[in-house]
Amino acid sequence: MFDLWAFPITAFIILIVSTVVFLASRYKRCPSDKILVIYGKVGEGQSARCIHGGGTLVWPLIQDYSYMSLTPITIGIPLQKALSMQNIRINVPSTFTIGISTEPAIMNNAAERLLKLDQSSVEEMAKEIIFGQLRLTVASLTIEQINQDRESFLESIRKNVTPELNKIGLYLINVNITDITDESGYIDSIGKKAAAEAINQAKIDVAVQDKLGSIGHAEATRERDVRVAENVASAEKGKKKAEADQRVFVQQQETSATIGEAEAIRDKDIRVAENVAQSEKGKKKAEADQRVFVQQQEAGAVKGENDAKADIAATNAELAVKQAEALQKGEVARLDAQVEIQKAQYRAEQERLTAEEVVVSEIDKRKIEIAAEAEAEKVRREAKGTADAILMKYEAEAKGIRQVLESKAQGYQNLIKSCNGDARAAATLLMTEKIEEIVKLQIEAIKNIKIDKVTVWDGGKDGNGGTATSNFMSGLIRSLPPLHDVAKMAGIELPQYLGNISEEKGKEKSAGKENA
Q1: Stretch (H or E) spanning 22
Q2: What pLDDT, on a 0 to 100 scale, did the predictor assign at position 191?
Q3: Among candidates 439, 440, 442, 408, which has minimal Cα distance to 426?
Q4: Distance of CA 409 to the CA centre of its chain
Q5: How far apart are CA 184 and CA 293, in angstroms?
Q6: pTM exceeds cut of 0.85
Q7: Cβ proximity of 244 and 282 under 8 Å
């Protein structure tokens, strides 16, 4: 009993272990520097399923897997003689770093176009794309934009190259432009021009600083001299005033001591007056001297200021002349560049307009051909429709006439059958049906005669016992063809119940016609 249960349990364990080992062998993990591509039956409308990081189970028989490396690829692009917007050929050696993108849509593009390709094939494919887009970018820019604004140039390259690389599953990591040269020396001339402008500007800045230094030094010297002169004048004025006061006081003391009381009073008054006058005169003279000195110093200071202003004006004039010359040279160079740009734009616009005219001419030609073909087809269809309508009309008329004739023939045949095969009797019956119409025609013939006035001169009775007037009216009535005569003209004899004409009357009638 133990042996019977041991075998199923062992088999079940072996089955579980085998299943786990099998699933573990089919579970594939994706490293961080690679993309796991699962292809085969992966989903509705999908050619491959890409995984970056993690892992998944790859089913046998219906699925398979492969890896794509995310390692960046560096490609050297030695672009030579690329035509710029100014029609100047330049050399743009550059280095592009690219790699497979991890974005889902771009990863799928890489799985569809780059799976199992070696690195050299991928580089060659990317190089062709980069060459074309780099030439297109250079052709849309001027040399000044390429050489001076490198950041904008690189941004234009990324903008043009990245979408094209994304189509095959790659993306642009970095771009390095080593050195841009041209065979005509235009870029060197631009560098020399910029260096010369920088040197000239430096010289102008040095001259301006020297001028400012000289002006500052002159102003400081003038300020120092003015202040010294003012201090010396003040000191001299105080000294003179003290000496004058001292002399006045001494003279007063000596006069008071040596002259008597009377003479002292008189002399004192005289001396006092004289001293006062002398003092006032000295004071006025000192003030005059002081004022002259001050005015002289002020005149010197004003002269120094005017000289400094003149030097400043001369320096400013020289600076303005140099700036005007530099501005003139820059403006001339800018206008020359604009002229070249306008020439290039004119040529490009002329080529574009020529191409547009050719396209418009081809379109107009094609329109005319289509319109002519449509008109011819319309005429053909209208003619065919008209012919079909006419044919159908005639066919319908013929069909109607045939049906009418067949109906008449059938009616005539039935009519003859009803008359026991007597055709004359059948014709007589048909003629009898038309008597009413014949009478109507006779009445119409008389009715349409317009007689405004009828004057009859009745000469009495005629030989037959009638009057002339009655003979006139009866003759007028008899002038109409009688029914029997009309029937005889058709070769038909009317039936007896419609009356009969005697032979005599017929003969008289015939004779009357002959006499007439």
Answers
A1: helix 2-26
A2: 63
A3: 408
A4: 81
A5: 73
A6: no
A7: yes
